[in-house]
Each structure stands twice: as C-alpha cells, then as structure tokens.
TrEMBL record:
The lineage of its organism: Eukaryota, Metazoa, Ecdysozoa, Arthropoda, Hexapoda. PANTHER family: ADENOSINE 3'-PHOSPHO 5'-PHOSPHOSULFATE TRANSPORTER 1, SOLUTE CARRIER FAMILY 35 MEMBER B. It comes from the Eukaryota. Belongs to the nucleotide-sugar transporter family. SLC35B subfamily. The keyword Membrane applies. Keywords: Membrane, Signal, Transmembrane, Transmembrane helix, Transport. The chain crosses the membrane at residues 69-91, 143-163, 187-204, 270-289, 296-314, 375-404, 424-445. It is a multi-pass membrane protein. Residues 1-23 form the signal peptide. This is Adenosine 3'-phospho 5'-phosphosulfate transporter 1. It is found in: Membrane. GO terms for cellular component: endoplasmic reticulum membrane; Golgi membrane.
Length: 474
C-alpha cells in the first residue's frame, strides 16, 4: 500500500493547485467580487435576494471577443495540463520503482500496465495495423458500398458543417425572446468526444478488441493536438466565415508535409510541392475576393487567419503522430479513435470543471432547447462521420476517400453561402477552383506515380529470370 502514497500526494497537490489558480483567475478577471445580483419573481415582482457568483467561463465571456479567445486558450491549456502533468509524474514514478516489472496481478496493477506498459507482444489486437483499402469483390456490390459511403460521408459531414456554423455564429432565442450566442467551443469538443468514445468503446467491447500493444498514454499526445485543433476550428468561426474555413482545411497539406519532414523524415515529390503552392495561391485569392460585411475589420481577419493556422498546425501533428503509432504498434483505426477520444474526454472535462464551463453551458442549454437539439445532432454526425471515414478508407482506399471529401467541401461551401448568405466575388471563385484543381491534380499524380512504381517493380521481377540478357524498358 505504501506505493500508493506518492500517487495520492500528486493528485492532492494537483487539486490544490487547480483551486488556487482558479481563485486567482477569478480575482484577476472579475470586476470586484465577480458576482451578479440574483433575482426571483414573487407575485410578478422581481425580488433581489442574494448575489450569484459568476463562473470563470462567464467572466471570460464578458471580455472583448478579439482578446477573450486568448484568455480562454490559456485557461483551457492549464486545465489540460492538470491531467497531463500528474500523469507524467505518475509515469516517471512508476518507471523509477520498476512497478511494471513486478508480478502483481491485482486490478490496480493491470490498470497501471494498461496505461504505461501496453499489452504483451503476443497479445496483438485483431486489427492488424492500418486499414488498407482496395478490397476486391463483386462490381455491383462494390458500387452499392461506394454509394453507401458517399451518402454517409456527405450526410454526416454536411450536417456537421451546417450545425457547426449555426451554433458558433447564429443567435438563439429563449422563452423571453432574448437573443444570445453560445460561446464555449470547448463544450462542443467535449460532447463530440464523449459520444465518439462511447460508440467506439461499445464496438470494441462487443468485438472483443480491447487488448492492444500500444501503451494507453501514447494516445494522449494525439488527443491533445486533436482537441486543440477542434477548438481552434470552432473558435475561428467567430472571426471568419465557414467557406473560408473549408478552404483553409485544404491548406492542411502544407503543415502536414512540414510535420512529416520533422516527425517522420518523409520525402516528397515535385508535384506535391507544386500542388501545395497552388493551394496556397488559391487560398490567398479566396481570402482577397471573399467579403463578409459583419467581419470586415483588420483585427478580426488577422485573428481568424491566426486561429486557422493554429488549427492546421495541430491537426497536421495529429495525423502524423497517429501514423507513427500505426507503424509502431498493431491496432485498428477504431482502437485509435477510442484511445484518442478517451483522453480528449478527460482533458476537456478537467478544463470545463475548473472553469465552470459545464454549469454555464448547461444553463444556456436549459434556456435554449433548440441548442440542445443542434448540439446532439452535431455530436452524432461527428461520431458517425468518423466511422464512415474508417470504413471508406478500409474498403476503397485513401484516394476514393479524398475525392469524396473534396466534393463534400465544395458542396459545403455552396450550402453555407446559400443558407447563411455569404457573398464571394469572382476572384474568390477563381481561388476555390484553383484549390480544388490542385487537390484533384495531387490525387491523379499520386495514382500515376504508384502505377509507374508497380510497373517498374513488375519488370524488375520479370527481368531477374533472364540472367545475362539486358532488357530495355519501353
């Protein structure tokens, strides 16, 4: 039992630090005591009886929109560190006392091994590494499956995109006809990740695929970058319109290539650099040619672009880190989704609890029933969309998936412009066309290069049988 004391001490210190920092932030952000009068209605008359303390999340919301996102980002990050730092300290302590080398088979010991040691080499998960596309089969069956994947991806992500923009940009009306915006992007990330984790956990339990070789803590890095990218994505909609955000996602290729060089030492072909430049030029044209009367100040535009850059940076790290995990450990995509969503739920829950984000968001939900419906449908469409992503890649490969998602982006821009009345000039339309042309060119060149390599490999194997007879490749 003595080995539990240091871990308990770490938890107690963490809780104490969280309370202390939370009180300091309340004092620094609040004007005075940080309270507002609370009223009850008696015989049609409002009677003020006491003061209601504002949560940290509500205090941040009272700040100017141009700067509140930076304050919230700092507080969110601190909340994530309250989970991450104790985990690192417990991991270091576990390694130092060589706890994983003991033969103890208690439930607590199994949890520690699952978090920090992973499964044994022989306990390989049923999903053998990354899902691979291109399964062959009956042509009619494949065509029906392709239509099913197309419908699933389009329906889930188009719904998700429309609701994402609605929740973050449109006003909700309560029973008293008062209008208000929902402001806490992190709560949306939390609801999405909770549902995603629940669905994947149930699936893995039913299929008995809970064992895997990767230590659980390995997912925390991808989880952190994932929730940060999602938060930046939601927050950017307060400063730029949805079509701009969709086009910016196409520019992920650039930071993904940079992260690939840094993390995996990847090498890229000439056409990959060319299409990356084309996408950048198209995005510049679109930003120059798109207009939004409600967001015309230089400050909001600069802030929106900065948030989009942060989104793309974190998102590119997520994909590259997950790629490394797929290479190193044997797991299925569903296991990856489950592990990442688990840590995302823990991180966001800790941060929301510290800020009082749960109470303020649930308060808003209680006053605006339409928000509850939008939030639930948003989370369901996000979770279903992730499942369709994995199924499409596993069945038809990444190329078909990329083409479907590119079409989805084009339709999403059109829907957003029609529903929310965004205006795009001719230069902006040219920028959109350049971006999508670059994406299709990239897919085409990638397929051509793979075909040439396969043909070259086939001729090399064939020529190896002709000893001493040189052969020309025509």
């Amino acid at each position: 039992m003595g080995t539990l004391n240091p871990r308990c001490f770490i938890v107690i210190v963490t809780v104490t630090v969280v309370r202390l920092v939370s009180n300091i932030l309340h004092e620094s952000l609040g004007e005075g005591p940080g309270t507002i009068p609370a009223a009850i209605v008696v015989n049609g008359v409002a009677v003020f009886r006491e003061e209601q303390t504002l949560t940290l999340s509500q205090l941040i919301d009272r700040r100017s929109k141009e700067y509140s996102w930076l304050i919230r980002l700092s507080v969110n990050t601190f909340g994530y560190l309250c989970v991450f730092v104790p985990g690192v300290l417990i991991y270091k302590y576990t390694r130092r006392i060589k706890y994983l080398e003991r033969s103890d088979k208690s439930p607590f010991s199994n949890v520690i091994r699952f978090c920090f040691g992973g499964a044994n080499d022989g306990e390989r998960a049923d999903g053998r590494g990354q899902d691979k596309g291109g399964k062959s089969g009956n042509s009619m069956r494949d065509f029906i499956l392709l239509l099913w994947c197309l419908f699933g991806l389009m329906a889930s992500y188009l719904t998700w995109g429309v609701l994402q923009e609605k929740i973050m940009t449109q006003e909700y009306v309560n029973a008293e006809k008062k209008k208000a915006h929902f402001k806490d992007s992190q709560f949306l990330v939390f609801t999405n990740r909770v549902l995603g984790f629940t669905i994947t956990a149930v699936y893995l339990t039913v299929r008995k695929q809970l064992k895997q070789r990767a230590p659980l803590y390995k997912f925390s890095y991808a989880s952190f970058s994932n929730i940060m990218s999602a938060w930046f994505q939601y927050e950017a909609l307060k400063f730029v319109n949805f079509p701009t955000q969709v086009l910016a996602k196409s520019c992920k290729i650039i930071p993904v290539m940079m992260m690939g060089k840094i993390i995996s030492r990847n090498k890229y072909e000439f056409y990959e650099y060319l299409t990356a430049i084309m996408i950048s030029v198209g995005m510049i044209f679109f930003l120059t040619g798109s207009t939004d009367e409600s967001k015309t100040t230089a400050m909001t535009t600069l802030t929106g672009v900065l948030l989009l850059i942060c989104y793309m940076t974190f998102d590119s790290f997520t994909s590259n880190w997950q790629g490394e995990l797929f290479k190193t450990y044997s797991m299925s995509s569903i296991q990856m989704m489950c592990g990442v969503n688990l840590f995302s739920t823990l991180f966001t829950a800790a941060s929301l609890s510290m800020q009082g984000g749960f109470s303020s968001s649930l308060e808003f939900a209680a006053e605006h029933p339409k928000f509850v419906l939008d939030c639930v449908v948003l989370s369901i469409s996000s979770a279903i969309g992730q499942l369709f992503i994995f199924y499409t890649i596993a069945t038809f490969g990444a190329v078909v998936f990329t083409i479907i998602m590119t079409l989805r982006q084009a339709i999403a821009i059109l829907l957003s412009c029609l529903i929310y009345k965004h205006s795009i000039s001719f230069l902006g339309i040219v920028g959109v066309m350049i971006v999508f042309l670059a994406i299709f060119l990239r897919v085409y060149c990638n397929q051509r290069l793979k075909a040439i390599k396969r043909r070259h490999a086939g001729t090399t194997e064939g020529s190896s049988a002709l000893v001493g007879k040189p052969r020309l490749n025509v």
